[in-house]
Design a protein that fits this description.
Membrane topology: Multi-pass membrane protein
Number of domains: 1
GO molecular function: phosphate transmembrane transporter activity
Shape: elongated
Main location: membrane
Radius of gyration: 19 Å
Keywords: Membrane, Transmembrane, Transmembrane helix, Transport
Subcellular location: Membrane
Structural class: mainly alpha
Number of strands: 0
Strand content: under 5%
Low-confidence stretches: none
Helix content: over 70%
Amino acid sequence: MDSILILTILVVVFALAFDFINGFHDTANAIATSVSTRALTPRRAVLLAAAMNFVGALTFTGVAKTITKDIVDPFALQNGSLIILAALLSAIAWNLITWYFGIPSSSSHAIIGSIAGASISAAGFAILNYDGFIKILEALLISPFLALTIGFIVMSIFKVVFKNNNLYRSNKGFRYFQVVTAALQAFTHGTNDAQKAMGIITMALIAANLHTTDDIPLWVRIAAATAMGLGTSIGGYKIIKTVGGKIMKIRPVNGVAADLSSAMIIFGATAIHLPVSTTHVISSAIMGVGSAQRVRGVKWGVARKIVITWIITLPISAILAALIYQLLALFS
């Protein structure tokens, strides 16, 4: 069998593995608040998130097209399949490391940094599509600040609107509503995060001359959505514990405010075809909500560790992907 075809098959397998891992790594982001407030049991929350992630993944393709063509030009990529395979191995390794330690790291940062690092290692800095790459970086950097701000605003509005309500009744009502917001959160997660694996597979197909446009084939969409849904069904309980309880003490009203805020940001990014880190957005929304509730109520030490992980993910994954590419190139 032709070596390029073998590499392309490996890319598809590892891209689906990345999507599967992304599912259980990032499941916590979508359902952490609803589990921590006991609006949903962990099992029901995970099943709900799996179903809504699957639906969301099948609904849109704009982010996948951005991944396909805006980091590097797949039509000009030499050794494209090897580059993409190195990027996937790097992103998967980083996702598993951070999952093992219960750190809500960004799968988006990991894969985007890995694609850039492997491409630079293969062809130098000139290979990057700087206009598209900078646009993606801007979305990744700006979205957490927007989520923090909107989380603060939404929670401030809730405090004014419900200040005279009975606390028990309000929390009971918000706990029921959290089922809806958790489903919405998981749906928006699928519309953005699952798109990344679709874009990577399409990049590999183009690099191997098996596909001629940046349109996402139907089988790729179904395969990536299925992998994301199955991964989500496994769950990520270590990260649920961090996101759902270690940043701040979350009540149902806080969970609803955080879910609505982050869902708005993620879906807004999907609508303009930009990838964002769902981890960054959801964690930032929780911080914003906590700040509106009580600044001292946010455990800023934990938040600082999360932010540090956000900062180091992209450069570490880029360096790791560059090294993996050089190792693969030796053997290929």
